Every structure is written in C-alpha cells, then in structure tokens.
Recover the amino acids of this structure.
C-alpha cells in the first residue's frame, strides 16, 4: 500500500467503464510522476501499474503531507467534485479542489454550483472554457508520443491485418449515434466502390443500448455488398497499431468533450478528417494535417474524405505534417508541465 506522506495530488476516477477521462488519466499520471509530482489515483477502472491509494486510506487525508500544507483533489467529473467538497468543507480535510472541464455545453445549475466550490478550474479547450462562468486556465490535452508513434515495421501495415486492399481508413470509438459512426459508414458505402484499393475498419464496442444501431449499420453494409471491405472489428485489444496501419483516420462525432483520437492518429503519422465537435478544430490544421467539417453534416464529411482516397500521397503528406504539429503543440509533457503550474499555485503557503 502506497504511503501518502509525500503525496500532494489525488486524482479520483469514479467510473469503471473506459472513457476519454480514463484515457487522459492513464496517459497523464505516469508523466506527472516522471516530473516528480507525488500523485495517486483513487477509484476503479484504471490499470494496476498506476500509483493508487486505497479507500481505507481516506482518513489519512486529514494529515498534511510532509512537504505541503494541502493536497490537491483533482476532479474531472461531477461525481468526483462532490466528494471533494464533502471532504474539504464537511470533514475539514486540508484539501484544495481543482476541476478540469471538457464539456462543451451549458452546465446545469447543479454543476455550476459544484464548480463555484472549486479553488481552481481548468478548461481543456478555449471552446469548453467559453461555457464556464468562473476564472479558469486553458490547458489542452496532450498525447504520449512514445506510446503513439509512426509506423516502423511490418506489423504497422495493412498487410499485417489480412484485410484486402492497399490502404486502410478507420473510425474508432464506441459505435453509437453520438460518435457519428453512421456518417462514416454512409461515406464508405458511397466512396469505396470507386476506390478498390481501400478498406474501411470500424473499431469500438457496441453496448447493449446501441445494439440496434450497430446492427442497422452492418445491414446497410451487407446490402451494399461491401461486408468484406467495411469491417466492424469490435473492441480490439490494442488500438495503437491500428492507428499506424491507417492511411486516413475519420472522427465524425456529433458531440464530444475534448476528443483525443485525432491527436493519437496524428502522433501515429496519420492524416485526419474530423467534425468540429469537441476540440477537434483546435487540434487539426485544415488543409495541412487534415480537414475539419461541421458536425452532423454528411455531405461535407464525404467531400472532405474523398480527396484523400483519390490521392493517398496527399494523405501521406498531411500525416507527416500532423506528426510534426502534434510534436510541437500537443506533447503530453506540455500538458503535465502546465498542470504543475496550477498545482503549485494551489499548494503555495
């Protein structure tokens, strides 16, 4: 069991299912540890190799750490803000409360109340910050450039998959209306018959409540006679090599919080076509690293994909530019360093 004596940040994670927040915590916490920050996670749904405190250690938060007067409770959900408020204001634990907001919508009255109780607030994009009514710092998410990297071997090619064609185009994430999976599938049904060198893959879980939606998409593909060239792979064990195998990645979400997948694709040297949901428009340089189209707009999405399928060399050039763009602007270390400044501001005497 980890000692809390030198721990100055607690990152609660109160959700079992994989989500964008989970991905952020999994990538970010090890980077924060490398920077020397004493940080632990608390809650389910995270890998065993992350530093974790146990629920039975909560009373230890009444004791101050050896090197600071407070600890930071860094929440990313309502369900994590509320316990932080209780621990600080009801149980009188020496905590400072920090909330990272990725939502791009008007917050409910309840959420606004929670946010007003925070000692500091971070927004993951300028757009998400525009919905906040309190002072905040914009810190965009980053991507781990060691985990997500360009192709470097035979396993990073379409040949390794056993799928037909010379080029892969992919759409990753849970299969549901919000993610725009249907828009991607429609575009593939329209475009692939004219481009026999391309195969499309959809990677992501279909949950029970969205099973009918997923089944309908498979029926559309079968009716078009394209079941061999538009493949539904489900939730793959490791998504990272699939990014490297792609020539083009498509993120057609209708709604997002931040959305890491375009960054993960660009870090893998893959060009991206995305909607303007979430922070996608702040990640992609249109015409240089990919293209951004309005959310929930089929024709613009199809039109943005077609030039890449017609000219794979264009996708390659934009993939190379995307890699450099991410290295310069979205390295995970930048996010961790920016958060360090926020922590230090909260922990100072």
């Amino acid at each position: 069991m980890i000692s809390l004596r030198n721990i100055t940040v607690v990152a609660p994670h109160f959700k079992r299912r994989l989500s964008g927040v989970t991905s952020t915590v999994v990538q970010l916490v090890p980077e924060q540890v490398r920077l020397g920050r004493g940080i632990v996670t608390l809650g389910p749904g995270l890998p065993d190799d992350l530093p974790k405190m146990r629920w039975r250690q909560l009373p230890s938060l009444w004791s101050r750490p050896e090197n600071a007067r407070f600890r930071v409770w860094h929440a990313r959900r309502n369900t994590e803000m509320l316990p932080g408020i209780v621990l600080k204001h009801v149980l009188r634990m020496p905590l400072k409360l920090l909330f990272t907001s990725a939502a791009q919508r008007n917050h409910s009255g309840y959420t606004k109340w929670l946010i007003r109780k925070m000692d500091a607030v971070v927004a993951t994009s300028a757009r998400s910050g525009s919905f906040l009514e309190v002072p905040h710092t914009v810190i965009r998410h980053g991507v781990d450039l060691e985990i997500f990297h360009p192709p470097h071997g035979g396993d990073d090619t379409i040949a390794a998959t056993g799928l037909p064609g010379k080029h892969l185009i992919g759409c990753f994430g849970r299969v549901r209306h919000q993610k725009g999976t249907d828009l991607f599938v429609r575009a593939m049904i329209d475009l692939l018959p004219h481009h026999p060198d391309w195969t499309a893959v959809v990677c992501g879980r279909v949950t029970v409540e969205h099973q009918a939606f997923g089944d309908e998409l498979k029926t559309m593909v079968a009716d078009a006679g394209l079941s061999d060239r538009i493949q539904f792979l489900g939730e793959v064990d490791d998504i990272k090599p699939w990014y490297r195998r792609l020539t083009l990645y498509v993120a057609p979400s209708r709604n997002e919080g931040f959305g890491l997948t375009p960054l993960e694709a660009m870090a893998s040297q893959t060009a991206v076509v995305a909607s303007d949901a979430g922070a996608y428009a702040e990640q992609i340089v249109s015409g240089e690293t990919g293209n951004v189209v309005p959310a929930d707009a089929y024709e613009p999405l199809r039109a943005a994909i077609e030039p890449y399928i017609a000219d794979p060399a264009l996708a390659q050039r934009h993939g190379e530019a995307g890699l450099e763009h991410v290295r310069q602007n979205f390295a995970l270390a930048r996010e961790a360093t920016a958060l360090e400044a926020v922590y230090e501001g909260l922990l100072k005497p």
Q: What stands out?
A: The chain has two domains: 9-142+331-347, 154-329. The radius of gyration is 21 Å.
